[in-house]
Amino acid sequence: MKVAYLCLAHDNFEYVDWLAKHLTQDGDGFFLHVDKKSVFPEKVLGNSSHVTFLSDKERVRSQWGSFAIVKATIRLLKLALKDAREFDAFFLVSGHDYPLYSARSIKAKLRKGNDYISVWEVVSSESKDKEFFGRHYYEYDILNPGLSYKSGSRLRIYFSMIMNLIISNVPISDNFQFENYAKGSQWWCLSRDTCQSIIQEIERGLKVSEFELMHAPDEKFFQTLYFNLINPLVDKYSSRVLHALHYIDWEGRNGPKLHFELEHANIAREEGALFARKISQSSMQIVINSSGVE
Q: Are 211 and 67 in contact (CB under 8 A)?
């Protein structure tokens, strides 16, 4: 069993380096996309033999909720599929994920040939669901909801909300390629056969453009392809794999808690997760200075 970890990162590169070393201790691969917005961390990762980097030419500037995240993931997946090690599973993680087990223990909990992907909503292409079928231009900073809220400016937040509401009323297309579209967790772990099938569909001319303007296509692109091309029974997965082996604490006031603390690791393990999101800065330092996860 050989695993290729596909990692999306934009900061905290000392921790990313620790994560790569931790996950490749048992001979697995670690493929890294460093966001184009970030300066490449030459001092930290410049001589990392345990990391395979997406080239500078293929790096993208990703924005919250934009298709650039999907584009980076596709490029990482293609890179890993071409690797001579011929990995059995491809595990999407971020530079803020915390592995709840050792690399060997993670592999022992994965079953060769199995797919771990979650879908919690399926909608018809005939519906008027604006999140799926209305236009969103999140690559522009002024229209990106994540950046607007991060700015703290009420004027910018309201402007973004109003503009996006207006724009979303313009349909993406009148002719969608699938009857149904799916939404689920961005994170997944897929078998080699599944990943090859998805990439083959993309290279055969899959109409990617209709996903580019959806709200948060990173929660829809792979999920829709999997639902339509691989297994339509993926819908309504149990809550224990709701985020495809990732633990997220949803007990925050307005959604998930922003930071995961190490003292909650046993709770995450009891939920059946292999990784937790998102590890706090203080916990990152503890992990970096420790001997690792058993």
A: yes
Largest CA distance in the chain: 55
Q: How far is CA 139 from CA 60, 62, 68, 210, 229, in A?
A: 11, 8, 8, 15, 28
- DSSP letter for 55, please: P
pLDDT band, very low/low/confident/very high, at 238 (cuts 50, 70, 90): very low
* Cα 272 from Cα 229, distance rounded (Å): 27
Instruction: Respond yes or no on whether the N-terminal peptide bond of residue 71 is cis (omega within 30° of 0).
Output: no
CB contact at 8 A, 242 and 272: no
Interval 124-145: pLDDT, tens = 999 989 999 999 999 999 999 9
- How far apart are alpha carbons 36 and 38 in whole angstroms? 5
Q: CA of 169: how far to CAs of 116, 146, 224, in Å?
A: 34, 20, 22
